[in-house]
């Protein structure tokens, strides 16, 4: 059953299930067209990108491989620092391949900037990025993002894979978290 009432910690629903589904379907079709000759390996960034990956991969009508990385950017609460550590590396060798990084959200872009240079050092044929959400801060870092689901305001969001203290990832929509939840 779809959840009709937002979670009590949600200030407002930013993107509902249908909006997300429709946009991901569009992006999947675009990716299938762009990579028709040489399908990409999708690299999901754990844990936030699991829902995007699951829905995006199913909307790409090509033979695509899925792999995962887990990184931790040192930082506390709701801000990231750009100092990154690999918690889980890829299983696949990406040299000579088209890599498409699948992200939930780009905020400062610091995590992604580090990840891109790490992936590029492995000799892939290409590296592109697909993110469901992008916040305004991200525009200040020079990262070319090929596929963007939605530009969102600078508020802390949860759901559809995004968490606050590991909670709310399984909400089927993207919502703005009430400030009272993280501001004491
Ligand atoms: P940077 O700033 O390096 O951070 O682009 C990207 C990572 O920070 C987390 N992040 C969020 N997580 N709601 C979340 O649940 C948000 O609004 C949010 N903003 C940033 C997230 O882990 C992302 O990969
Ligand atoms: Mg993330």
Q: Averaging pLDDT over every residue, what do you get?
A: 93
Architecture in CATH? 3-Layer(aba) Sandwich
CATH topology: Rossmann fold
The tally of domains stands at 1
Describe the fold and architecture.
- The chain has a six-stranded mixed beta sheet, sandwiched between helices. Strands 1-9-8 form a three-stranded antiparallel beta sheet.
- It has one domain: Rossmann fold (3-Layer(aba) Sandwich).
- It is built from four helices and nine strands, in the order E-H-E-H-E-E-E-H-E-E-E-E-H.
- Helix 3 links the parallel strand 5 and strand 6.
- With 184 residues, the protein is an alpha/beta fold.
- The longest helix has 18 residues.
- The chain is globular.
- Magnesium ion (MG) binds next to loops.
Tell me briefly what this model is:
This protein is an alpha/beta fold. The chain has 4 helices and 9 strands, in the order E-H-E-H-E-E-E-H-E-E-E-E-H.
Task: Please write out the topology.
Layout: E1 10-15, H1 17-34, E2 41-46, H2 50-58, E3 65-73, E4 84-88, E5 98-106, H3 110-120, E6 126-134, E7 147-151, E8 157-158, E9 174-177, H4 179-182
Parallel strand pairs: 2-3, 2-5, 5-6, 6-7
Antiparallel strand pairs: 1-9, 3-4, 8-9
Helix pairs in contact: 1-2
The chain binds xanthosine-5'-monophosphate and magnesium ion (MG).
Xanthosine-5'-monophosphate binds at residues 48, 73, 80, 104-112, 156-158, 162-164.
């Amino acid at each position: 059953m779809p959840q009709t009432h937002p979670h009590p910690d949600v200030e407002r629903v930013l993107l509902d299930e249908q909006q997300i589904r429709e946009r991901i379907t569009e992006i999947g079709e675009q990716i299938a067209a762009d990579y028709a000759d040489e399908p990409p390996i999708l690299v999901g960034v754990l844990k936030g990108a699991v829902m995007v990956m699951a829905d995006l991969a199913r909307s790409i009508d090509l033979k695509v491989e899925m792999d995962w990385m887990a990184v931790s950017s040192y930082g506390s609460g709701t801000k990231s620092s750009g100092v990154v550590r690999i918690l889980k590396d890829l299983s696949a060798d990406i040299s000579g391949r088209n890599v498409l990084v699948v992200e939930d959200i780009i905020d400062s872009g610091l995590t992604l900037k580090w990840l891109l240079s790490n992936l590029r050092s492995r000799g892939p044929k290409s590296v592109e990025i697909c993110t469901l959400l992008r916040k305004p801060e991200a525009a200040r870092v020079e990262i070319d993002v090929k596929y963007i689901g939605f530009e969102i305001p600078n508020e802390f969001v949860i759901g559809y894979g995004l968490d606050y203290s590991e909670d709310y990832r399984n909400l089927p929509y993207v919502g703005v978290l009430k400030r009272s939840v993280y501001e004491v």
